[in-house]
């Protein structure tokens, strides 16, 4: 079960020295969006992911892929291929996954925080530099963005 909250981030309020945090180069495409079936390249690791419907809480399963199978399936993906750099930023007992998008979504910055349970997610107080909470907006799901014109 994945339980997470998602926030828009203003590039002018981004924490300094962002490049000092561990980060991953991510590329992902969508085989379908209902249910979500995604392939992802994160640095030199490759995955197939299934996600159920949901906003703050949903089922998620990851399976490893080979590089060859990833690129084979990438050519079969529908819509936009999503490219981003994901920074891993410690915050209290959590890790902020900060995504800075490139390509078609250049300028978009989103932060996600994952939780062990719904109570934690509902009581979470984000840092001051976080913007609008878009957890309940499907507009900022990467699967929705993959279908954007």
Task: Fill in the keyword field for this structure.
3 helices, mainly beta, Hypothetical Protein Pfu-838710-001, 149 residues
Overall, the morphology is globular
Rg estimate, integer Å: 15 Å
Instruction: Give the integer mean of the pLDDT values.
Output: 96
CATH superfamily: Hypothetical Protein Pfu-838710-001
- The number of distinct helices, counting runs of at least 4 residues, comes to 3
Please describe what this structure looks like.
The protein is mostly beta strands and 149 residues long. The protein has one domain (2-145): Hypothetical Protein Pfu-838710-001 (Beta Barrel). Helix content is 12%, strand content 46%. The chain has helices spanning 67-74, 118-123, 142-145, and strands at residues 2-8, 23-33, 36-42, 45-51, 57-58, 60-65, 78-91, 94-102, 109-114. The chain has a nine-stranded antiparallel beta sheet. The mean pLDDT is 96.
Compact overview of the structure:
The protein is mainly beta and about 150 residues long. The protein has helices at about 65-75, 120-125, 140-145, and strands at about 1-10, 25-35, 35-40, 45-50, 55-60, 60-65, 80-90, 95-100, 110-115.
Question: What's the arrangement of secondary structure elements?
Answer:
Layout (H helix, E strand, L loop, with lengths): L1 E7 L14 E11 L2 E7 L2 E7 L5 E2 L1 E6 L1 H8 L3 E14 L2 E9 L6 E6 L3 H6 L18 H4 L4
Antiparallel strand pairs: 1-5, 1-9, 2-3, 2-7, 3-4, 4-6, 7-8, 8-9
